[in-house]
Every structure is written in C-alpha cells, then in structure tokens.
Amino acid sequence: MISCDEATLICNKSQYKEATIIEKMKLRFHVLYCSACAGFIKKNTELTSLCTKANLRTLTSAEKMAMKQELQKQI
C-alpha cells in the first residue's frame, strides 16, 4: 500500500507520462479506498487540461534576463 503523499507524486508523474506501469497500478489501488486522492486526481487532470487548452508558454532565457535587468534598473 502507498501513502497519500506517494499517490500525489505518482499522479503528477502520470500527468507527464513519467509514471511506470507498477506505479500506475499502485495509484489505482490506492484510489479505490481513498476518496481524497481520487478528488485530487480529478482536479489535477482538469488543471492539466485547462493549461493545455490555454496554450501557455514560458519566457525564454533572453526574456528572463531582460526582465531581470529592467527590474535591477528600477531599484
């Protein structure tokens, strides 16, 4: 049996296709008796879906550096 902390970790790994088959099986078994983790998985899946639909992007290294330099000028 796995703890809720481990279930959360496996859930997150699963969202990014990094969980092994054994981990996924452990997670499914855990969710059978833990409604809190089942709720977490549902919300995490919804959040991932929303982020994908929003087409979010991160700043490039150059953009981060420019922002940092601009902030330092203002100090």
Structure report:
79% of the residues lie in helices and 0% in strands. The protein is an all-alpha fold. The protein has one domain. The relative contact order is 0.11.
In helices, the fraction of residues equals over 70%
The profile of the biggest β sheet is:
none
Backbone CA Rg: 18 Å
Share in β-strands = under 5%
Number of helices: 4
Number of strand segments? 0
Instruction: Give the overall silhouette.
Output: elongated
Order of helices and strands: HHHH
Domain unit count: 1
Q: For the record, give the distance between the C-alpha atoms at the N and C termini, rounded to a whole number.
A: 53 Å
Query: What is the residue-averaged pLDDT?
Result: 93
Uncertain stretches: none
Oligomeric state = single chain
SS-derived structural category: mainly alpha
In short:
The protein is mainly alpha-helical and 75 residues long.
How is the topology of this model organized?
Blueprint (H helix, E strand, L loop, with lengths): L3 H12 L5 H13 L1 H20 L6 H14 L1
Characteristics:
75 residues, elongated, 4 helices, mainly alpha
